[in-house]
Amino acid sequence: MKRPHQTQIKRENYSQIMDNLYLGGIRCKKILIENCHSAIAITDYDMGKPEWADNYVHYELCDTSTESVELVVNAIFGGIKFIEDNIQNGVLVYCGLGVSRSSTVVIAYIMKALKLSYEDAFKYVQQKRTCVRPNALFQKVLQNFRFDN
């Protein structure tokens, strides 16, 4: 079943969340974003690295509330590390629509980088990309995260 807001999302759009950090859907991988040379894909299966990406990582993750918590946590911590290692070259984080899986990783990064609670990091990201909405499981995982910087 489609989420009601999905029809309002332009799949080719991406949003700049902060300097050198972008969030979007799968079609963004075909867009050359100025000063962005790294990509994280969080999808059901790996569709290959974008042609423009010098650095790339894929995390296999389904957007369901029955997904393995271990896979969610691995994608979050792996994604944060990848962003930290590549932020100076620009990073695009994408999933199917740029709503749930990719926003989960970006929100976690914002929580750690800016030392924010889940609620404040969610609001920060939502101000930049209004369609973000991690599913119930991803929200629960993020609400339980505490980062010791």
Report on this structure.
InterPro entries: Dual-sp_phosphatase_cat-dom, Prot-tyrosine_phosphatase-like, Tyr_Pase_dom, TYR_PHOSPHATASE_DUAL_dom. Belongs to the protein-tyrosine phosphatase family. Non-receptor class dual specificity subfamily. It comes from Hexamita inflata. It catalyses: O-phospho-L-threonyl-[protein] + H2O = L-threonyl-[protein] + phosphate; O-phospho-L-seryl-[protein] + H2O = L-seryl-[protein] + phosphate. The chain has 149 residues and is of the alpha/beta class. The protein has one domain: Protein tyrosine phosphatase superfamily (Protein-Tyrosine Phosphatase, Chain A). It has helices at residues 69-86, 101-114, 118-128, 136-143; strands spanning 14-18, 21-25, 38-43, 55-60, 91-95. A 5-stranded mixed β-sheet has the order 1-2-5-3-4, covered by helices on one side. Strand 1 and strand 2 (21-25) form a beta hairpin. The longest helix is centred in the middle third of the chain and has 18 residues, at 69-86. The chain is globular. It starts with 13 loop residues before the first strand and ends in a 6-residue tail after the last helix. Residues 1-11 have low confidence and may be disordered.
